[in-house]
Amino acid sequence: MTGVITYEQDVIAWANEQSRLLRTGQFDRLDIEHLVEEIEDVGKSEQRELASRMAVLLMHLLKWRFQPERRGRSWEATIRIQRQSIARRLQRTPSLKHSLDDADWWEDVWADALAKAIDETGLTDFPPQCPWSIAMILDLNWMPTENEAI
User: Which Pfam families does the UniProt entry name for this protein (predicted)?
Assistant: First the structure.
């Protein structure tokens, strides 16, 4: 690939060149190894985004549940926005739904949510495992209450 921008030099210029080569049918000039890596990374990036949004949502649900005196429109807006964003992401990329059934994925997301909640609130008496179902978590009309058993 002499005279061509390499993946290591400039990934954006490289991606544009790979796209041009694909569109013009110049398959013998493609950087297959890096193309495969980039395609795999797209899926990983989508999974990371879903996990990040879910952790933020769970952290705010925890704060809502355990700090009722601090509830406000900002928390409510964050919860609503995260739920809507997660729903759109799952609708656009249905294969992400398998993450919601993966116990290891939930364990990681819950650990992230707990760490964020502890950091933001200073509280440490959160449940060790998520007490809510996925249906509750994603329900636009559901909010935890301080009276619910956990």
Answer: DUF29
